[in-house]
Inverse folding.
């Protein structure tokens, strides 16, 4: 019988806090059970296993992240939207490191298809990039460029990997300028029907 007061949502919220405090890799059912003062077995009424918990955490954190990005980009377009998007992404990655790490795990595609948060992420990201006149397959390529740039920069910054005297914020701003120029001058791939036979 489920313990009174314990719910899947409460477990996920506690797991999110634990991830930020101790690292995503240290989110375990045992650690979570200790937080609630219960035995590990009590959690199985709410989550199937550790993978289920971590997947729920990833979806939860992804929802938080896109809410912040959506608020930042609202009413903006072009470079202003790109800078706002990037800034919200970076702020979340640096201030919520465990939750952010959860957003980087691979999630089953069936769950992705059913996740409102992940659909919203795609809508907002692709909407911003369509303002640059991009269409598939260039949209997917541009998303991958942005994600890898933002993630790589944030990972290095969080680890103290930038040792030069140059201000880290100034380099970030320059990277956004460079991404904006790249998106404006994207090497568009011709659609198959536009190619000579």
């Amino acid at each position: 019988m489920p313990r009174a007061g314990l719910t899947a949502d409460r477990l996920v919220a506690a797991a999110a806090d634990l991830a930020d405090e101790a690292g995503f890799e240290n989110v375990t059912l045992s650690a979570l059970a200790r937080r609630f003062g219960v035995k590990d077995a009590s959690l199985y009424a709410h989550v199937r296993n550790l993978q289920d918990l971590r997947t729920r955490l990833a979806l939860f954190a992804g929802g938080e992240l896109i809410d912040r990005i959506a608020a930042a980009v609202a009413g903006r377009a072009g470079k202003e939207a790109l800078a706002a998007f990037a800034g919200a992404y970076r702020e979340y990655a640096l201030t919520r490191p465990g939750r952010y790490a959860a957003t980087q795990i691979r999630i089953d595609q069936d769950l992705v298809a059913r996740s409102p948060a992940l659909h919203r992420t795609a809508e907002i990201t692709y909407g911003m990039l369509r303002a640059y006149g991009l269409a598939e397959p260039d949209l997917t390529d541009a998303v991958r460029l942005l994600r890898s740039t933002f993630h790589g920069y944030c990972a290095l910054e969080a680890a103290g990997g930038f040792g030069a005297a140059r201000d880290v914020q100034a380099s970030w701003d320059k990277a956004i300028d460079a991404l904006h120029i790249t998106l404006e001058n994207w090497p568009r791939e011709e659609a198959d029907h536009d190619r000579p036979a």
User: Anything to note?
Assistant: The longest helix spans residues 50-73. Residues 127 and 168 are 28 Å apart (CA to CA). The mean pLDDT is 92. The chain has nine helices and no strands.
